[in-house]
């Protein structure tokens, strides 16, 4: 079992992922590393320097917070790391791979996004006409796995996230917290080394918000995922052990309180 320190042992630990979890205890290369990243939107007089030299690193198994005022560059940073937009300069690594060095070092950015990055958004964005299982199974299917194998993987993760009993339901039949757990299952299903979460708890009450953060922490440890959570949410900020503050396109790191995200009474 990867980790039971929070007293919430997960019901399953799956084959290769379990051994990844064991590896997380050894000195490892960061899951994500960013050095001197800059992003300029536009040119000339109207240019906006959204990132001005960002340094950041997140270890496999770690969840860090990214906090900053509106317009400080949070979404630009997540989108750069997620290969949704192209930075202007700097370097980014995923694991040992240098994916960006003043230009993309990877030819197939769609495959990079699909296989190596999981996104969790503020709204779950589930596909309304697919049931819960197929919402999660779609990504492995797109990655070329068989429908049976994809659905098996989906059900396995839905069980980990404690929504297996809703596997045949349609998204509209789920509560907000259940939908967000399905969205987390979808972000995890291809076992990406990185999850980027943009305000994942914003629509949730404090108990559910803390549950989502606890689950992200468990997933990070069990699957050796490096997770960045953008948030303004005062309820969850005390749960981070490390926080990157971003302002005017520059980050600085501070220790967080690292409280257990146990939903309070
Ligand atoms: N496509 C774009 N073209 C030009 N400027 C942009 C573009 N996207 C963002 N910006 C600018 O870059 C800066 C950083 O924006 P970004 O969206 O990264 O901020 P943010 O921290 O995510 O803010 P919020 O909390 O409001 O979502 C802002 O000044 C914004 O106006
Ligand atoms: Mg934003």
Please report which band the strand proportion falls in: under 5%, 5-15%, 15-25%, 25-35%, 35-45% or over 45%.
15-25%
Share of residues in helices: 25-40%
Morphology call: globular
Architecture per CATH nomenclature, i.e. the level-2 architecture of the domain at 56-88 and 109-255: 3-Layer(aba) Sandwich
Which class do the helix and strand fractions yield? alpha/beta
CATH topology of the domain at 56-88 and 109-255: Rossmann fold
How many H/I helices? 7
Calculate Rg over CA atoms. Answer: 18 Å
Distance from first to last alpha carbon: 28 Å
Low-confidence stretches: 1-27
Can you identify the CATH class of the domain at 56-88 and 109-255? Answer: Alpha Beta
Biggest sheet: strands, sense, closure?
6 strands, mixed
Write the layout of secondary structure elements.
Elements: H1 15-23, E1 32-41, E2 48-58, E3 63-67, H2 74-81, E4 89-94, E5 97-101, H3 109-116, E6 117-120, H4 132-142, H5 147-160, H6 176-188, E7 194-198, H7 206-223, E8 226-230, E9 242-247, E10 250-255
Parallel strand pairs: 3-8, 3-9, 6-7, 7-8
Antiparallel strand pairs: 1-2, 1-4, 4-5, 9-10
Helix pairs in contact: 4-5, 4-6, 6-7
The protein binds adenosine-5'-triphosphate and magnesium ion.
Structure commentary:
It is a single chain. The chain is α/β, with parallel strands linked by helices and 265 residues long. The protein has a domain at 56-88 and 109-255: P-loop containing nucleotide triphosphate hydrolases (Rossmann fold), CATH 3.40.50. Helix content is 31%, strand content 24%. The protein has 7 helices and 10 strands. The chain has helices at 15-23, 74-81, 109-116, 132-142, 147-160, 176-188, 206-223, and strands at residues 32-41, 48-58, 63-67, 89-94, 97-101, 117-120, 194-198, 226-230, 242-247, 250-255. The strands form 2 sheets. It has a 6-stranded mixed sheet with strand order 6-7-8-3-9-10, with helices on both faces. It has a 4-stranded antiparallel sheet with strand order 2-1-4-5, with helices on one face. The longest helix is centred in the last third of the chain and has 18 residues, at 206-223. The two termini are 28 Å apart. The model is unreliable at 1-27 (pLDDT under 50). The structure holds adenosine-5'-triphosphate and magnesium ion (MG). Residues 74-75 line the site of magnesium ion. Residues 41-42, 48, 50, 68, 70-76 line the site of adenosine-5'-triphosphate.
